[in-house]
Amino acid sequence: MRIFAEEFKFVRPLLCVRRDEIIEYLKERDLKWRTDRTNEDCRYRRNFIRHRLLPALQQDCSGSDVEQLSVLSQSAQRFYRLVCDGAEQVWPVLADCAGDILKLDLKSFLAQPEPVKVELVRRGLACIGSGEKDLTRQHYERILQIAQRNIGDKKIELPDGFAVRREYGSLIFGRVKTTLEPDKQINKSVELEIPGRIKFGSYLIEATVLKTDNADVERFKVEKDEFVEWFDLEKVKQPLVVRFREAGDRFRPFGFEGGKKIGKFLTASRINHKLRKEVVIIADNDKIIWVGPVRASALTKITPTTKSILQIRLSRFR
Fold first, then answer.
1. 3-state secondary structure string, the chain?
2. What value does the mean pLDDT of the chain take?
């Protein structure tokens, strides 16, 4: 309903009453009405529903199909409001948006009823700019499957270049990223604050600080994966920078006694060509601390005496 000047009210559509009831109402009050010339054209979906589908349904209904559909519509609206309220309550807790990348905390997400999960997914897609026009129920079902299963396919590509990916306890929404060839990559460095988060190339890079009185090295070996690395914060000379590889880059890989040229190290380690193109360099003020996501430096490794751990995480769309 819209209210114009002098409290004139414009109400549409009148889903709760039939056409003959509206006409009878107008005639009783001697009010004129106008009929749109397209109203009889069944090429338009609204007219097909009105002139063909609803009469066919009415033949098999004991009561008024309009009234029954109106009751169903009102019930659905009340249910949808409850779903939206549920999503609104948890959204600030589980959603973390950085530009055109959104992360939903999986633990909190999976604790929600399924209708709320669907609404959270819809909000997530809207947040990154993905339209809903070309999305189907199958897209939503596959996203929920990815969130619920920690095996098999962990990524789904959506229409218009968007994707949803499961990584590190998060459901990540964003655009599909393509890896640039080395000679086309941006030749610059970007500072990474501690704590902080930046986008660089095809990665979202996050730095956080973990406090511990006794760094458990064995637990670290179990918990870490190739896209997460830990460093002794006291051995890192800030600021940190993120950049692509440069000719002559050297570092001291974890597990080696001396320094190595990065190119030769990658070759000797038999790193495949695709991953070599995706490598990023994370360096402090005087040394490279991580050839991500391949190998960290031995100079910043954690020990049982480490008091503060710098955690760096890479997230990407492939």
1. CEECHHHCEECCCCCCCCHHHHHHHHHHCCCCCCCCHHHHCCCCHHHHHHHHHHHHHHHCCCCCHHHHHHHHHHHHHHHHHHHHHHHHHHHHHHEEEECCEEEEEHHHHHCCCHHHHHHHHHHHHHHCCCCCCCCCHHHHHHHHHHHHCCCCCCEEEEHHHEEEEEECCEEEEEECCCCCCHHHCCCCCEEECCCEEEEECCEEEEEEEEECCCCCHHHHHHHCCCCEEEEEHHHCCCCEEEECCCCCCEECECCCCCCEEHHHHHHHCCCCHHHHHHCEEEECCCCEEEEECCEEEHHHCCCCCCCEEEEEEEEECC
2. 83
- Report d(CA 186, CA 201) in Å as an integer: 8
- If asked whether residues 12 and 136 sit together in one domain, one would say no
How much is the average pLDDT of 167-175? 84
pLDDT in tens, 103-160: 899 999 999 999 999 999 999 998 888 878 788 999 999 999 999 876 545 788 888 8
- What are 142's two structure tokens? 């596959």
* pTM of model > 0.90: no
Q: Tokens at residue 27, please?
A: 């005639």
The domain of 223 spans: 182-316
- The number of residues in the chain equals 318
Residue 17 domain-assigned (yes or no): yes
Least confident range of 38-52, 58-72, 131-145, 189-203: 58-72
Q: Choose among 44, 57, 45: nearest CA to 18.
A: 57
pLDDT in tens, 246-263: 888 999 998 888 889 998
Cα(298)–Cα(291) distance, rounded to whole angstroms? 12
Structural domain count of the chain: 3
Same domain, 49 and 168: no
The reply to whether 68 falls in a domain is no
Residues 287 and 226 in one domain: yes
Residue 110 within a domain:
yes
